[in-house]
Amino acid sequence: MYIHVNGRNIEITEAIKAYVKEKIGKVAAHYDQIQGIDVVLTVIKNPSASGKHIAEVSCKTNSGVIHCEEAGDAMYASIDLLADKLARQIKKMKDKNLSSDKASIRTDAVASADSDDETEEIAAVEE
């Protein structure tokens, strides 16, 4: 698994890169189906804009792509918010993929109806 960190209108320092890899790496450790993560950090240079520091991530997994985006007044704050949001979405995807192995309600109802018919037949034979 790889983590790429890119910047728009910002120079990516080693401190920022290490912080992103630490925060996003913790999230990636929870799910082993992640193939790669691309992080883009952007700074809007308009003085009247609020939420000037934007962090976005694209997380490629075996079952699809998760895309998150967060904005904040400081880059480290937006990275923290992004890591929390990505953790929630990965947990949701993981739960969805694990629960898809279970049988549906419709097939469970048919199976229980068949077993009820068999018990009635056995009771009739015993009488």
Task: Summarize the model shown.
The chain has 127 residues and is α+β, with helices and mostly antiparallel strands. It has helices spanning 14-28, 75-99, 105-126; strands spanning 2-8, 34-43, 53-61, 64-72. Helix 1 (14-28) links the parallel strand 1 (2-8) and strand 2 (34-43).
Q: How would you characterize the overall build of this protein?
A:
The protein is of the alpha+beta class. The chain has one domain: Double Stranded RNA Binding Domain (2-Layer Sandwich). It has three helices and four strands, in the order E-H-E-E-E-H-H. Strands 1-2-3-4 form a four-stranded mixed sheet, covered by helices on one side. Strand 1, helix 1 and strand 2 form a beta-alpha-beta unit. It is elongated and about 85 Å long. The relative contact order is 0.14. The mean pLDDT is 84.
